[in-house]
From TrEMBL:
Pfam families to which the protein is assigned, alphabetical: DUF5803 (PF19119)
Source organism per UniProt: Halonotius pteroides
Entries under InterPro entries matching the protein: DUF5803
Protein known as: Lipoprotein
Entry superkingdom: Archaea
Transmembrane segments: 206-227
Length: 249
């Protein structure tokens, strides 16, 4: 039995190591043409005056537009749940030249570079312009490495708020918030840190939070009342038995 268990463990370890080696041999798997050329859910904001514009039309999807330079090589990665790094799951890639011409992700790969490894996606730009792509996001908490330094803007989904300090936060410090057409815009004039964080909440979150506090408060009051009634009953019993003076409370 022990020998079979040992063999099973060796097989699992071998498969794991082999899979890891194959990932590096194949550069982690090439991003397919369909993914690179997919249509974005909404038009990219090419006219932004920020070095990075990050738009959250929904809490689970991010649209990013970065101001980039010729031959600049971006390393697109994201922290994983086990404390390591993995490639950013980009799709709907577009590149806009300074003259306004927009090319698809496959055209960008042919003219520059889009190379995925097990740890990151490398993108090399063919000219000055703007790089745009879509990626996944965590609802109510956007955490993203800083791929380019400079000014940043994060546009939150409609109905999002950052007024209640317990549910909202920005990193690095110094961000300003402004509500425009029912959408909160978070901006930094210059970001030099390794990552940014924007924590926000939806309007109904406060209602849910208030209901939870109300329920917990009612339970607490009910518990105190029950505890007090038990003490009173015990005292009455002791008085009836002549163990306590009726005037003592």
């Amino acid at each position: 039995m022990n020998r079979r268990l040992g063999l099973a463990i060796l097989v699992v370890l071998s498969l794991t190591l082999t899979a890891g080696c194959l990932d590096y041999v194949t550069d982690g798997g090439e991003i397919s043409d369909d993914v690179l050329d997919a249509e974005p859910a909404a038009a990219y904001d090419w006219e932004t005056d920020r070095n990075a514009s990050l738009t959250l039309d929904t809490g689970s999807e991010l649209q990013a537009v970065y101001n980039v330079s010729a031959d600049q090589r971006l390393r697109l990665y994201q922290p994983t749940s086990i404390g390591q790094e993995g490639p950013l799951d980009i799709s709907a890639v577009r590149f806009r030249y300074a003259n306004g011409t927009v090319i698809s992700g496959t055209e960008l790969r042919a003219r520059g570079e889009i190379d995925q490894t097990p740890d990151e996606v490398y993108v090399t730009l063919p000219a000055d312009g703007r790089l745009a792509f879509t990626a996944g996001a965590t609802p109510r908490r956007l955490t993203l490495p800083v791929y380019v330094e400079g000014s940043y803007e994060v546009i939150l989904p409609e109905g999002s708020r950052m007024d209640f300090f317990l549910f909202s936060n920005t990193v690095p410090a110094g961000a300003t918030t402004e509500r425009v057409d029912n959408r909160v815009h978070v901006t930094w004039e210059n970001v030099e840190s390794s990552s940014i964080l924007v924590q926000y909440y939806q309007n109904n979150d406060l209602t849910i939070f208030g209901a939870i506090i109300g329920i917990l408060s009612a339970i607490a009051v009910g518990g105190l009342y029950y505890y007090r009634r038990q003490i009173d009953r015990l005292h009455e019993t002791r008085v009836e038995m002549g163990l306590d003076d009726e005037d003592e409370q």
